[in-house]
Amino acid sequence: MDSQRIFILVKPDGVERGLVGEILGRIEAKGYKLEDLRFMRAKEEVLRVHYAHLADKPFFPEIVRYMTRGPVVAAIFSGANVIEGVRALAGATNPTQAVPGSIRGDLAREWGHGNIENLIHASDSDENAEKEISLWFN
Ligand code: TYD
Q1: Could you give the strand order of the β-sheet that contains 120-122, starting from the edge strand earlier in sequence?
Q2: Among 9, 49, 54, 124, which is best to mutate for testing ligand 1, by the most ligand atoms less than 8 A from CB?
């Protein structure tokens, strides 16, 4: 397929733990091209749009607290089938279930206080990637 784009975030736990280079490096080392990069604080109103599919879940306030507790790194990568490829690199949502070899499987775990801290967000479709790119990089 032709080149595709994906939006990714290194979440606050990734920045806190000094894993920005490791996470971006794994995506670059796989061969995807870094197209844009921003270090920023996530705004609650942006998270409400970004996580609209989770807005009515009981853990949504925890997600907002987690995602706003420190800075994040937002990036755009491109390449053929980059969405499937980066989601495979990221691993399953729950870091306990994420396979070793993946970012979440190697570098994240459950901390026992309810919400999932899983280091990285990666868009799951072309449509969401383009929406997220305009939302975060407007
Ligand atoms: P989701 O979009 O379902 O997963 P992914 O990030 O793998 O595409 O969920 C978004 C984030 O919400 C997820 O990365 C962590 C958080 N989350 C929880 O804290 N608890 C949950 O039960 C779920 C499903 C998600």
Answers
A1: 33-40, 72-80, 3-10, 120-122
A2: 54
